[in-house]
Write a structure and sequence with these properties.
Blueprint lengths: L2 H13 L2 H8 L3 H15 L4 E3 L4 E3 L1 H25 L6 E7 L4 H15 L3 E7 L2 H10 L4 E3 L22 E2 L21 E5 H5 L4 H4 L7 E6 L6 E2 L4
Parallel strand pairs: 3-4, 3-5, 6-9, 7-8
Antiparallel strand pairs: 1-2
Helix pairs in contact: 1-2, 1-4
C-alpha cells in the first residue's frame, strides 16, 4: 500500500463521495476510482458499498480507515522530524486521560517549549487501553496511564499525584449537602460509571456487597473515570 493511495482512500472515506474527494485531491475522478479499485484488488477485500449519491464503508473499510489514519500520521510526523534543520525539533506526542497528574506533565512541557521553541506538543486524550495501543503502534511517544496494569514492557515512572473519585450531581440534590458519600447513599439511583473502572473492579473494595444493589444504567467509556448519575 502506497501512502499516496492511502491518502486518496482517506479523502474518499471522509467525503463519502468520489467526485468531491477527487475535487479536493485535485485528481480526475477516473484516476481516483482506478486507484481505489486497485487498492481493493491488492487487499482482496471490498472497501466501499457504492450507492447512487454516496458511498458507504464496509467493515473492512472502517478498519482500514482507522489504521490508515495512524499510518499517515506516523509518516507525516517522521518526515517533519527528519526535515527540520535544528537538532532539537519535531513533535512530542503524549497520550493521557484527565488526571491531576497532568498538571506536573504540563509544567515540564512548558519548560521544554521555552528551551526548545521548535518542539511541538501534541496531546491525545483517551483511556488506558487506547493509550497503550497507541504507544505500541508508535503514534504517541509517552502515555500517562491511570489504571492498574503491568508496565513491565515499558520504561516508566510513578507520578506522586493521586486521583480521587467523585460524584457529579445537580447542586440542589440532597447528596450535594453531604461531606462524604457512602455506597448505601447510591442505592436506587441511576448510575453512569466508567467502563474501565468497572472492568478493573476499582470500586469493589469500596462498595462491597452494596454493589449488588446498585442500579448501573450505563457504562461510559469515560476518559476521566467520572462516577456520576443523571437527573431522574
Amino acid at each position: 500500500m502506497e501512502l499516496r493511495v492511502l491518502r486518496y482512500f482517506l479523502a474518499v472515506a471522509q467525503q463519502r463521495n468520489i467526485t468531491k474527494a477527487a475535487r479536493e485531491l485535485l485528481v480526475s475522478q477516473p484516476t481516483l476510482s482506478k486507484q481505489l479499485a486497485d487498492l481493493e484488488s491488492e487487499l482482496s477485500v471490498k472497501l466501499f458499498i457504492r450507492g447512487h449519491r454516496q458511498i458507504t464503508l464496509t467493515d473492512e473499510g472502517e478498519y482500514l480507515q482507522a489504521r490508515a489514519k495512524e499510518i499517515i500520521q506516523l509518516a507525516d510526523q517522521t518526515a517533519t522530524n527528519i526535515q527540520k534543520e535544528q537538532f532539537v525539533t519535531g513533535t512530542l506526542s503524549i497520550g493521557a486521560g484527565e488526571s491531576i497528574g497532568m498538571q506536573r506533565i504540563m509544567e515540564v512541557l512548558s519548560e521544554i517549549i521555552q528551551d526548545y521553541p521548535d518542539v511541538k506538543i501534541r496531546l491525545v486524550s483517551g483511556n488506558a487501553d487506547e493509550m497503550e495501543t497507541a504507544l505500541k503502534h508508535g503514534t504517541i511517544d509517552f502515555a500517562v496511564l491511570m489504571a492498574h496494569r503491568s508496565l513491565d514492557s515499558y520504561h516508566h515512572l510513578q507520578l506522586p499525584e493521586t486521583d480521587r473519585w467523585g460524584l457529579a450531581m445537580q447542586k440542589d440534590n440532597p447528596l450535594a449537602q453531604k461531606n462524604a458519600i457512602k455506597p448505601a447513599d447510591l442505592i436506587g439511583l441511576p448510575l453512569l460509571v466508567s467502563e474501565q473502572a468497572l472492568d478493573e473492579h476499582r470500586f469493589q473494595d469500596w462498595w462491597g456487597n452494596v454493589g449488588n444493589n446498585l442500579r448501573l444504567v450505563q457504562n461510559e467509556n469515560n476518559r476521566s473515570g467520572l462516577f456520576c448519575y443523571p437527573k431522574s
